[in-house]
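We close this part of the discussion by returning to an individual protein. In the encoding step, the backbone of a single protein was reduced to a row of integers, each denoting a local shape. The sequence in question and its structure tokens are set out directly beneath this paragraph.
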Amino acid sequence: MSKDAQFSAQSLLSAFWRAAIVLALVSTLATCARAQQHCDLLLHGGRVIDPANHLDGIRDVAITNGHIAAIAEHVEGSACQRVVDVSGLLVTPGLIDIHAHVYAGTGESNSYAGDNSVYPDGFTFRTGVTTVADAGGSGWKNFYDFKERIIDRSQTRVLVFLNIVGDGMRGTRYEQDTALMDAQKAGEEALKYPGLIVGIKTAHYMAPDWIAVEQAVKAGSIAHIPVMVDFGDFRPERPYQQLVLEKLRPGDISTHMYLSWVPLLDEHGKLLPYLAQARKRGVIFDVGHGGGSFLFRQAVPAIQQGWVPDSISTDLHISSMNAGMKDMLNVMSKFLNMGLSLNDVIRMSTSNPAHEIQRPDLGTLTVGSEADIAVFNIEHGKFGFVDTFGARMDGSERLQCEMTLRAGKVVWDLNGRTRDDWKTLGNYRAQGSPNWDGTLSADVAKRTH
């Protein structure tokens, strides 16, 4: 496919999502016009940062029927079912983590299509993440099992980078088998699930040839979606520079950008010029922190010279979450303490990844869009952050998630900001409303009287 044809296909998909946003906006505005007195939930007085709409200011955010109904300096709250004071806090779109491993539950040991992965809902909402993309756990052979086992059962929105290996990320025996790298079947599987399968993944390949990358790019071209590359072994026969300057297309993603093996700096500590050339031609660079892919000695001097991420992601799995990576907010806080602005860090965790996976309906607080929202507190003090080789960096600020909304429902509320003091409730029953409360189990919620 030519670059023009590829761009046309990507533009068509983006246009689809823009049209979906417009339809949701019309529906929501019609609802508000019919019932100006009503909203399900009002977040009052927070600092709203929405990079997709170039917004940074004190605003009220009204939510109705699971969607953003209004954002304004003042929204009348007297008729809202629940008003939550978030003054002094940050209100952002729900975070998007485009590199995670959540294909859990198969029982397969030492596998990212099994025991190395985590169930998403246990690790997303408490950090403000409302959308994850599983990065290659499944391939065309086992995608449907992943869909039934995890995607369809999760409150978290789970999207997929489909592995070019048909069996997915089940270990070395599979990931090195080029016979399992079928671009046609991977591309066709992705075409069956537009907007759900958002990319193709190749990872951990060790051989000196380009077969894994070339098959992944071919599959991505068939399905008109980006490719994410975890380069595996860095071999002189297939230099990283050639990957990003020749092999990848505009819009394709190189993850693990601060990995120790990535050639970033020359012998004098200066940023290598090929990196700017690769970015100019449209290659995307993603953090993909993980358990072994982020070093301060790479990241700090590179960032000081302007080599910053396009997107921030975790590479969440059972090892990284208990080591230096920890979670999305810990990774974002590292970048704050390395000198990036708050607005840039939010943009790299919301609207940028949404653009990269061709889902402009996500990562935004546009009126009419689904109300995926994160509310944060910035803590100030003395904190320590650790890289994947175990080196520490001191820092003075850290993000903490106070509240997360998924599709308009509160699914995480750290300090009970949506709740009333029990001493004021008398002989109380289960609190909350199904219109905005996603934290009470069904059997408890029924006990309202």
Observations:
- The CA atoms of residues 102 and 118 lie 5 Å apart.
- Residues 1-7, 26-37 have pLDDT under 50 and may be disordered.
- The longest strand covers residues 392-406.
- DSSP finds twelve helices and 15 strands in the chain.
